[in-house]
Amino acid sequence: MITLWELGGKDGRRYSLFSWRTRMALRHKQLEFETVPVCMSDKAAIAFSAGKTVPIIKDGAGGDDSVVRDSWKIAEYLEDRYPQAPTLFGGDIGRGVTQAFNVWVDRALVLPMLAVIVADVHERVDATDERYFRESMEKVLKTTLEDARQRRADAMAKLARALEPMQALLKRQQWISGAQPAYADYILFSIFQWARVMSPGDVLSSPEPLHGWRERLLDLHGGFARGVPTA
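The structure assignment produced for this chain is given below.
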């Protein structure tokens, strides 16, 4: 059994976008896992990993209890440890291209999405984390949560501009990865699942290619990502 440590919010929400990459990768690899929710401010709970962030997995396969932290490193571990399961990358070249995409999403899309949903996320984190989350996110965004909510329309416009390349791509092919979904799809999907779980306002509209793609992702693996607590 694989154990996944991830952020836990109110009403059973699992809201770490990076943990959603790991969740989808585990399902893609057809691996069973259990989860341990932790608070963002509770660094002691994950000190065993020698890091301060989630996701973290512990894999007891082979009796060695391997501990891996960081969503990208976890994806690489799963690909190498379980080569007989469906591939996340489609080979070495695909791994390199997917890592480049991972960097682009993290640098180009995470902050624009955060600016859109940050006040909503704050309302749904565990009560223990409310102050920690506010202080951390206001430092990142250099504004208050209240101001961020007032500027949501502008933030949505910036997010839409950042997403234009993906809208164009998905007019040409069904998945980010091409003919079938793979880890690159889960990287981008994690941004939208983060919003779906923590914000009541939908950031995508139905005519958009990204909306249809997200719906297909929600239906994957028996509707795994659809059947979770959301806002």
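Interim note for the steering committee: The chain has a mean pLDDT of 97. The beta strands are 2-7, 33-38, 56-59, 66-69.
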